[in-house]
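fyi for ur records
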Amino acid sequence: MSVQVTIDQGRLGRLLRARGGIAERALRRRTDRVAGIARVEAPGSMGDYISTRIEDGPRGLVGVVECDHPAVRFVLDGTRPHVIRPRRASALRFELGGRTVFAKKVNHPGNRANNFLLRSLRLGR
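which gave:
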């Protein structure tokens, strides 16, 4: 005894590509997993600024993980050593070793690039 099954290719494609369909749920799980890794890898409070969304791209659905922290470019690309001067006050104020310190300028040593978003994408595969 044999059983013949016919699959409507058009309907199957619509089920897979539809919003809320199988493909979107799988993409959302993967996107959320990558975002979770990015939140752990992000320095300081930058992980609080990470969000995800699913959108239509040119070749189908795309999962997007983004960080909208104001300093994210400086973390991802790194910075060269530079001088920091006050803009609206006469001195800079910051904590150093539990004490409040004031300074006219600070020589910042720069930061090495920390591309935590790319690293989380690679770890989330």
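The first strand starts at residue 50 and ends at 57. thats all i got for now
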